[in-house]
């Protein structure tokens, strides 16, 4: 290759701005992605044989096990010719719930599991159960395919010692080829269980029954990766190479949790999977080696103890070299010389400070298999260069998304066996360069290079399916085949070799409604996406798919670069569950996807001209303003297709690419009829077509009302203001904002803080209503810093806030206001940019205390009447009216015609006594406890406003409580926060929440400690705990509630929601987060509930916890007058059965004290001749369905005003006064055709 040497080619490719995403296998006529084998799709027969004895009776233990079983089955490919499931319980004998031939679809078996009740029985005859399973369940007559060679698996749950011998039946089972897995719980005997399994790795021990759900990923992985009665050889050496630089500090706890979760999914052991961890920044530090720990728990403990290395920019190249020379060697525990796979998981949050190309090549040639994970500012091209093949690279926007890729990484590590790796070859070439790309795009003279005196064909003349003859992944190809072979080697560049450019490539993002409104029909949305994906040519170099849910806010389910095969995408889709939430904030969801999802680092190929599609599925009209986000999305080049149920047609047209791509349904059950209508544009529209349609779109001018204004608050946050002064400024801004008529077409607000630097908090376009603006302002904290550079801040707001891209309507003539709040003299020049602001038509208001330079402030405002000063910031309320009047008539909330509105009264002052009870045990380490204190400080700082009468106490506890301070001790917010910040971590092995709550009752919520309970001031106990109490705290919490104390409970990480619910007074005051870093995200939710609690008048001695919690539900239906709904509606009876089951299993519907309701149902229909009742109110049982079927002969059924009166009378008769307290009754109405469930 004269004139086009491969080295030169590599350098050019390196400059290429496109991402290399996939190495493909090639044959003579086509090339394909090398997928990992997917064991989950093969045939299997799995019997779940669970302990149904007295071991699981009481304390809600069996429901936990039943839910666990449900979730495992939901992960499996259940179908007649795929995975078949059988379920049985055992104690004295065996009760078969379902044989292999009885419930062969996933919905059927899940419905059965959901209704299971515990068998009971005193003895636990495990030996008998094993023998019974082999004789009567793993047989052809029961649906087993054991004679056809289909793998047979037994999943056992054992919660006690067997009453009979297990050795004989266990031996017989092994000889028959059945592979057992065991969940060891409670008092099960490990030695006894080891007689049953093929390997100790097949025993999964649950720390406790409530935590058995933690084992779900492990059992699913085992069930998917075991073949032919024996495990895949599981030997692997797994090294985590973690960026430990300063840029990782805030996300380091989430990074550790991610590593821990991956390790927990692995079969760790000396002869199985070994694990090492290395941190790096500008230096490298091994945390532990491959031979340091030989069991999973020791590895997990070591991960939990990790501390951030620290240091500047990470040198990833040097770290890769370190791993090869010091970790992947025999002396450090590596089994590289034995051919054991060497997996290296590299996680970084920044671009490398040194070269990664050469170390990556050396590493891969040395036998390592790297997987690159880039977060935030990491360079995806670097991750692809490092990874064994580019397909292994993953990019996510923040550390919070690590949880969404954990299962993908775990499965990849599990599936990368010796056999799989023998079929893959590493990619050693770096990505292509923009210099070469430009030549290819514009038909550059690449054909001018000569080889042996002959002109080589230019690359842009290569045939469509160019191949690399004999290419083996790591060698250097040569000759004409190599020239054209480069087209195959870098699939992303195939757009340069075809006239159509991006033939076969599509990026498709599904933006789906996950709110409560969509929840009842969410399964239809999920199925619809699954079927669309089935029709698409999914692959990294063809069609990529992402799914985002939205409701109150958006949630990333998986990104465009998360999955590289159709199977992976469909499996991820089938795992989708509705996120919940009351709002349908479509505007913020559209804004989120346009700014965060259609981006190159996250897998979008928008920069390469690949068509970008957004498939929106919504359940109703948007609750926020979506005009601007819809315009922005389309101007970005995205083609939206909209599907909505009972939505505003005009709203959908604004979003959609064109009106022909707007699809309305009355129920999501109608989605199958839209499949081809949605697929047609996705499969046929090119980027050129999309651009033509977008270019012809006319965007109406933005709506602007007469009271519109844009107001930016520029707040001095320097050290001179101090925390106390800043709190007064924040409260002042809040009072102003409460009086503004905020909305997208009305008043928009932005906030910026500054000191020596500038800190934008939110822009004019960020929030569209008053509530989120106020919440954001409440979260403001003093930034600190000096000197004060006001000129720099003025320049920043002029360039970055009063511009269209930030939401300013300055070009539309909307009044622009800048409110500058100063606490000192500027150290830089203010005159220049003050003039720029004035000349732009922005009206500046200056607010300052006695420390400001009034002349300087007048220079900025140019009008002495717009300068307002106070002696101290605590006096700001005195100038509030003058500030409001300075905005003119545009900003203030308008008064109704003919009504005089007096000056607004100050908000009602709050009264409360709050005692915090903080877990000071090893559940929180010292650094985590500081996060808890910070959370408490923020709660107090935000909730305690000027003039409030709030008292605070604090107790820290482990096995016993320690009083930090009492309610009577401090009288100001500043004193309280200072006292909180001085609390010293106790430590201790155990946390006894029961003792702590009892201590509060006896020693804090009493007059001697400062409690104002007798004055009916709201009393609040606020518990923050990191683990389960050593004693049950529910009764003590109940005693506090009966005394008139509202108990809030926040559980962090090692405590489940059920346990938190037992501590809290009711479900509204129970909160749980995964780690201490997420506490800050919980603040707003807690504050909202606290606010409600502080405005209650609490009556001592009255509690709502002990009330009965009963729910009566009528299921009604109607049909057309000329049809029998039982005949016309296919599957009507089974659907009613499913609905009744679902209603009967509702949990905590408006129930206090963590109680579950007693649910009674009745089925009532109304005919022209009068009402027909299938059965009266009763707890639903399957045999009651037959009574419903007897209604078939009474049709037609109608839904009229008389029908509603029938329901009303029935409710009155069912709940006589004085008998019990019944929740507001509900009616479920089923219309013809079946259109979902509605409550009234």
UniProtKB/TrEMBL annotation:
GO cellular component, one term: collagen trimer
Chain residue ranges for the region called Disordered: 426-461
Domain VWFA: 45-219, 237-413, 507-682, 710-883, 913-1086
UniProt keyword list: Collagen
Pfam families per the UniProt record, alphabetical: VWA
Gene3D superfamilies per UniProt: von Willebrand factor, type A domain
PROSITE patterns: VWFA
The protein's name in its UniProt record: Collagen alpha-3(VI) chain
Source organism (scientific name): Saguinus oedipus
């Amino acid at each position: 290759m004269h004139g086009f040497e491969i080295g030169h080619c590599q350098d050019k490719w390196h400059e290429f701005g496109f991402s290399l995403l996939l190495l493909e296998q090639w044959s003579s006529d086509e090339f394909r992605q090398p997928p990992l084998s997917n064991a989950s799709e093969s045939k299997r027969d799995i019997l779940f044989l669970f302990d149904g004895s007295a071991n699981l009776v009481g304390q809600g233990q069996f429901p936990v096990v039943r839910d666990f079983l449900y979730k495992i089955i939901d992960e499996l490919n259940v179908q007649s010719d795929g995975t078949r499931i059988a379920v049985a319980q055992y104690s004295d004998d065996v009760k078969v719930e379902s044989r292999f031939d009885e419930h062969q679809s996933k919905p059927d078996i899940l419905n059965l599991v959901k209704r299971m009740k515990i068998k009971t029985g005193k003895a636990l005859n495990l030996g008998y159960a094993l023998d019974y399973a082999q004789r009567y369940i793993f047989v052809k007559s029961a649906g087993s395919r054991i004679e056809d060679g289909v793998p047979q698996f037994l999943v056992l749950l054992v919660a006690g010692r067997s009453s009979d011998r297990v050795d004989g039946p266990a031996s017989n089972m092994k000889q028959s080829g059945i592979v057992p897995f065991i969940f060891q719980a409670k008092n099960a005997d490990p030695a006894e269980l080891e007689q049953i399994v093929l390997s100790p790795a097949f025993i999964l021990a649950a720390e406790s029954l409530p935590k058995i759900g933690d084992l779900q990923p492990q059992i699913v992985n085992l069930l998917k990766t075991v073949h032919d009665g024996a495990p895949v050889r599981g030997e692997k050496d797994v090294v985590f190479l973690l960026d430990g630089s300063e840029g990782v500090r805030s996300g380091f706890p989430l990074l550790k949790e991610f590593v821990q979760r991956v390790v927990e999914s692995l079969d760790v052991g000396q002869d199985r999977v070994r694990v090492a961890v290395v941190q790096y920044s500008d230096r490298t530090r091994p945390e532990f080696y491959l031979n340091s720990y030989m069991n999973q728990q020791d590895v997990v403990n070591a991960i939990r103890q990790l501390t951030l290395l620290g240091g500047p920019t990470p040198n990833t190249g040097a770290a890769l070299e370190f791993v090869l020379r010091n970790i992947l060697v025999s002396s450090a525990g590596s089994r590289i010389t034995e051919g054991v796979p060497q997996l290296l998981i590299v996680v970084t949050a920044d671009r490398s400070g040194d070269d990664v190309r050469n170390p990556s090549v050396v590493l891969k040639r040395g036998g390592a298999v790297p997987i690159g994970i880039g977060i935030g500012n990491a360079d995806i091209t670097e991750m692809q260069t490092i990874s064994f093949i580019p397909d292994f690279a993953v990019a996510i926007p923040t550390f919070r998304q690590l949880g969404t890729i954990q299962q993908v990484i775990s499965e990849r590590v599990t599936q990368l066996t010796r056999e799989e790796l023998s079929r893959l070859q590493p990619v050693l070439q770096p990505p292509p360069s923009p210099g070469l790309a430009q030549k290819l795009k514009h038909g550059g003279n690449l054909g001018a290079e000569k080889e042996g005196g002959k002109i080589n064909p230019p690359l842009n003349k290569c045939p469509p399916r160019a191949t690399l003859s004999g290419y083996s992944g790591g060698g250097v190809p040569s000759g004409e085949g190599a020239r054209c072979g480069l087209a195959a080697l870098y699939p992303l560049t195939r757009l340069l070799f075809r006239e159509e450019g991006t033939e076969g490539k599509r990026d498709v993002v599904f933006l789906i409604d996950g709110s409560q409104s969509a929840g009842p029909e969410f399964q239809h949305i999920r199925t619809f996406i699954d079927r669309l994906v089935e029709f698409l040519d999914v692959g990294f170099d063809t069609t990529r798919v992402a799914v985002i849910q939205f409701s109150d806010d958006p949630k990333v389910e998986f990104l465009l670069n998360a999955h590289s095969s159709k199977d992976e995408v469909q499996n991820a889709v089938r795992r989708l569950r509705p996120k919940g939430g009351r709002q349908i904030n479509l505007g913020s969801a559209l804004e989120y996807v346009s700014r965060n999802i259609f981006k190159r680092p996250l897998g979008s190929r928008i920069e390469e001209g690949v068509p970008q599609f957004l498939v929106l599925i919504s359940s109703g009209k948007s609750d926020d303003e979506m005009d601007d986000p819809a315009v922005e999305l389309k101007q970005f080049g995205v083609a939206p297709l909209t599907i909505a149920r009972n939505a505003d047609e005009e709203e959908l047209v604004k979003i959609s690419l064109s009106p022909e791509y707007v699809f309305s349904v009355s129920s999501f059950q109608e989605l199958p009829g839209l499949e081809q209508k949605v697929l047609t544009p996705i499969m046929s529209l090119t980027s050129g077509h999309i651009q033509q349609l977008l270019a012809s779109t006319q965007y109406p001018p933005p709506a602007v009302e007469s009271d519109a204004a844009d107001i930016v608050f520029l707040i001095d946050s320097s050290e001179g203001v101090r925390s106390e002064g800043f709190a007064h400024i924040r409260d002042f801004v809040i009072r102003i904002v409460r009086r503004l008529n905020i909305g997208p077409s009305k008043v928009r607000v932005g906030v910026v803080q500054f000191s020596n630097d500038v800190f934008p908090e939110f822009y004019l376009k960020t929030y569209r209503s008053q509530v989120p603006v106020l919440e954001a302002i409440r979260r403001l904290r003093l930034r600190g810093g000096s000197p004060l550079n006001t000129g720099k801040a003025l320049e920043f707001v002029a360039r970055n806030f009063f511009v269209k891209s930030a939401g300013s309507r300055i070009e539309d003539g909307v009044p622009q206001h800048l409110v500058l709040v100063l606490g000192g003299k500027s150290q830089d020049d203010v005159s220049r940019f003050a003039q720029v602001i004035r000349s732009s038509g922005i009206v500046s208001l200056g607010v300052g205390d006695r420390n400001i330079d009034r002349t300087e402030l007048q220079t900025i405002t140019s009008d002495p009447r717009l300068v307002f000063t106070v002696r101290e910031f605590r006096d700001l309320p005195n100038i509030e009216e003058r500030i409001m009047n300075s905005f003119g008539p545009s900003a203030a909330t308008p008064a109704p015609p003919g009504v005089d509105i007096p000056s607004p009264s100050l908000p009602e002052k709050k009264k409360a006594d709050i005692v915090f009870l903080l877990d000071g045990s090893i559940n929180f380490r010292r650094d985590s406890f500081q996060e808890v204190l910070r959370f408490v400080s923020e709660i107090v700082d935000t909730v305690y406003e000027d003039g409030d009468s709030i008292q605070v106490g604090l107790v820290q506890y482990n096995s016993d409580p320690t009083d930090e301070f009492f309610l009577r001790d401090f009288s100001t917010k500043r004193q309280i926060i200072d006292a909180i910040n001085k609390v010293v971590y106790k430590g201790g092995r155990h946390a006894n929440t029961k003792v702590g709550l009892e201590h509060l009752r006896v020693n804090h919520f009493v007059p001697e400690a400062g409690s104002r309970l007798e004055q009916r001031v709201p009393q609040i106990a606020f518990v923050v705990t990191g683990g389960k109490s050593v004693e049950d705290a529910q009764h003590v919490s109940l005693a506090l509630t009966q005394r008139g104390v509202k108990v809030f409970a926040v559980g962090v990480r090692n405590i489940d929601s059920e346990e938190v619910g037992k501590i809290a007074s009711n479900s509204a005051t129970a909160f749980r987060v995964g780690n201490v870093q997420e506490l800050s995200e919980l603040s707003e939710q807690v504050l909202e509930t606290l606010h409600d609690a502080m405005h209650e008048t609490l009556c001592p001695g009255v509690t709502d916890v002990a009330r009965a919690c009963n729910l009566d539900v009528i299921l009604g239906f109607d049909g057309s007058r000329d049809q029998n709904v039982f005949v016309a509606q296919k599957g009507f009876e089974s659907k009613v059965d499913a609905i009744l089951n679902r209603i009967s299993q509702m949990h905590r519907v408006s129930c206090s004290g963590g109680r579950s309701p007693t649910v009674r149902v009745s089925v009532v229909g109304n005919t022209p001749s009068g009402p027909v009742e299938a059965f009266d109110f009763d707890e639903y049982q399957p045999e009651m369905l037959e009574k419903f079927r007897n209604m078939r002969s009474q049709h037609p059924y109608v839904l009229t005003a008389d029908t509603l009166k029938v329901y009303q009378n029935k409710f009155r008769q069912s709940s006589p006064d004085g008998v019990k307290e019944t929740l507001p009754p509900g009616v479920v109405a089923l219309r013809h055709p079946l259109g979902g469930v509605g409550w009234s």
